[in-house]
Amino acid sequence: MASKVRNVILCLSCLLLFVGPSSSLLETLVQGQEVKDGDELVSAQGNFKLGFFTLESNNYYLGIWYNDNRQRQDNLVWVANRDSPIFNNSGSLTIDDNGNLKISHGGGLPIVLYSGQGGSNTSAVLLDTGNFVLRELNNSEELWQSFDYPSHILVPGMKLGVNRKTGHTWSLTSWRGVVVPDLGVFTFGMDSNHTNQLVILWHDNIYWTSGSLERGHFTSSFSGISDSYYNFSYISNENETFFNYSVETSFTKSPRLVIDYLGRLSDDRGILVDCISRFSGSSKVERCMPAQLPECRSPDDVFYSHFTFMYNDGFKFSESENLTVMDCEAKCLNNCSCVAYASTIEDAQTGVRFGLAHRQDLMDL
Ligand SMILES: *[C@@H]1O[C@H](CO)[C@@H](O)[C@H](O)[C@H]1NC(C)=O
Ligand SMILES: *[C@@H]1O[C@H](CO)[C@@H](O)[C@H](O)[C@H]1NC(C)=O
Ligand SMILES: *[C@@H]1O[C@H](CO)[C@@H](O)[C@H](O)[C@H]1NC(C)=O
Ligand SMILES: *[C@@H]1O[C@H](CO)[C@@H](O)[C@H](O)[C@H]1NC(C)=O
Ligand SMILES: *[C@@H]1O[C@H](CO)[C@@H](O)[C@H](O)[C@H]1NC(C)=O
Ligand SMILES: *[C@@H]1O[C@H](CO)[C@@H](O)[C@H](O)[C@H]1NC(C)=O
Ligand SMILES: *[C@@H]1O[C@H](CO)[C@@H](O)[C@H](O)[C@H]1NC(C)=O
Ligand SMILES: *[C@@H]1O[C@H](CO)[C@@H](O)[C@H](O)[C@H]1NC(C)=O
Ligand SMILES: *[C@@H]1O[C@H](CO)[C@@H](O)[C@H](O)[C@H]1NC(C)=O
Q1: pLDDT for the residue 167
Q2: How does the record say this protein sits in the membrane (predicted)?
Q3: Which of 11, 52, 105, 280 has a Cα-to-Cα distance from 39 of 20 to 30 A?
Q4: For residue 148, how far is its CA from the centre of ligand 6 (angstroms)?
């Protein structure tokens, strides 16, 4: 009997060794700790995880994603260093002695997410909303939160709009390509005229408008975000003007509104807003701004996109122009001698650089 009890105690103590403080189960990062590549923070109820991830390329990013087994692209909600990838798995998130929240890595200067004021006592917690919040411990003051720096994805609890006191805007910015998180050419946010509508911009041009918000829904009958699953609110006071929203979760446990590199808006059900198809006779063109076309093009033209590698030597843009696939499409549309466009780099879907073909024999459209 006694030996049995001793066995149990022994087992408990070895168990304790294994479940003891482990950086992969905590929701909070305190000063002096680090989240290394491979470690994860998990929110209290287990809804979200924070950690480093990589896509098809050898670029590493710090991000937040729904805690499920889908591919990272499909459950991601936030990317911290989209314009500053780390080139190997040396990344580490810390709060240093001065209160800086930063990503250190082997390849150069750290990426600072929040600049502390020396000597502060702070910690950062991953909440079950998907928000990562840095707080001063002595008075719980919020110093920084990931929801204030949206990536290309909106989740309930986030805002789209502007803080009138600081001028800080909350908006989404698309990626540059399928697996290229760098800032792309589409933004999704509140109309800068502070009218109660949402807009998608291509560069600074209006690309799509939601119509104004009435009783939780946008007036555009074709706008996919206007359906019964979405309840938007528009709030405007002396401090801030913004939209927020809630989602009827019967269609998804992991609500996300995503603006993709082609300027399309989608959720877990599929594409909700798609202005690309305004040239292919699709019916989903409601509220897309008509393109300003030269006389040689007609809105009825059937226009094909070819995201494949171009072997022919057609006309090429200088790589320094750094075009996305949609920039290239616009260039092609506006140049009457253009019959097709394609990538000049083999990994076409990443779409960082594109060329424009002018040879009439390139394609038989
Ligand atoms: C990561 O890359 C940097 C240079 O970019 C190098 O100095 C460092 O040793 C590498 N670290 C690892 C863990 O490979
Ligand atoms: C909390 O800490 C900060 C930074 O050290 C300090 O400036 C502030 O006065 C402290 N607040 C309280 C209530 O102690
Ligand atoms: C930081 O704040 C925590 C909680 O208020 C406190 O227990 C701890 O002693 C503080 N640390 C320092 C270095 O002030
Ligand atoms: C905002 O106002 C300017 C000037 O009146 C107008 O040109 C622009 O189209 C408006 N933006 C939207 C999204 O309506
Ligand atoms: C939509 O949200 C508003 C504000 O949060 C709330 O008052 C209203 O009841 C909600 N409507 C529906 C249909 O859920
Ligand atoms: C605006 O901010 C001030 C200062 O933080 C606060 O006292 C006030 O209640 C805020 N107003 C609204 C409508 O939230
Ligand atoms: C939107 O923001 C308002 C004001 O902060 C808040 O009262 C409301 O609960 C928020 N709605 C949602 C759906 O988050
Ligand atoms: C292209 O432009 C984007 C945004 O301006 C920038 O982040 C990226 O580094 C540029 N890429 C190249 C290859 O110049
Ligand atoms: C159209 O493309 C040709 C190259 O084939 C170029 O010389 C011309 O300047 C372009 N026209 C416009 C309006 O961009």
Answers
A1: 96
A2: Single-pass type I membrane protein
A3: 11
A4: 18
Domain boundary among 146, 176, 192: 146
Q: Determine the average pLDDT of the residues in 313-326.
A: 68
Say what the pLDDT of residue 8 is.
33
Same domain, 43 and 54: yes
Tell how strand 240-247 and strand 230-236 pair up: antiparallel
141, 164, 166, 239: residue to mutate for ligand 6 pocket, most atoms within 8 A of CB: 239
Beta carbon of 239 within 6 Å of any ligand 6 atom: yes
Mutate to test the pocket of ligand 8, among 176, 180, 320 (most ligand atoms within 8 A of CB): 176
Q: Is 358 in the pocket of ligand 9 (CB under 6 A)?
A: yes
Residue 262 CA to ligand 9 center (angstroms) comes to 24
Nearest CA to ligand 9 atom 9: 335
Distance CA 111, CA 106 (A): 11
The pLDDT assigned to 192 comes to: 87
Ligand 4 pocket check for 193: Cβ under 6 Å: yes
Q: pLDDT exceeding 90 applies to what percent of the chain?
A: 48
pLDDT in tens, 210-265: 888 988 888 765 667 777 789 999 999 999 999 999 998 888 889 999 999 989 99
Query: Phi then psi for 333, rounded to 5 degrees?
Result: -60, -35
Which structural domain, as residue segments, surrounds residue 171?
A: 150-292
| Cβ atoms 289, 208 nearer than 8 A | yes
Does residue 12 lie within any of the structural domains? no
Please report whether residue 16 resides in a domain: no
Residue 274: phi and psi, rounded to 5, are -145, 100
Give the tokens for residue 55: 């896509």
Q: For residue range 103-159, what is the model confidence (pLDDT) as tens digits?
A: 999 989 999 999 987 767 899 999 999 999 999 988 888 999 999 999 999 999 999
**Ligand nearest to C-alpha 129:** 7
Say if CB 135 and CB 141 are below 8 A apart: yes
CATH number at residue 246: 2.90.10
Q: 């994860």: which residue's tokens?
A: 40
Residue 355 — very low, low, confident or very high, per pLDDT cuts 50/70/90? very low
Question: Do 306 and 269 share a structural domain?
Answer: no
Ligand 3 in reach of 139 Cβ (< 6 A): no
Neighbours of 324 (CB within 10 A): 25
Q: How many domains does the chain have?
A: 3
pLDDT of residue 36: 95
- Closest ligand 8 atom number to CA of residue 322: 1
Of the residues 259, 292, 325, which one is the last residue of a structural domain?
292
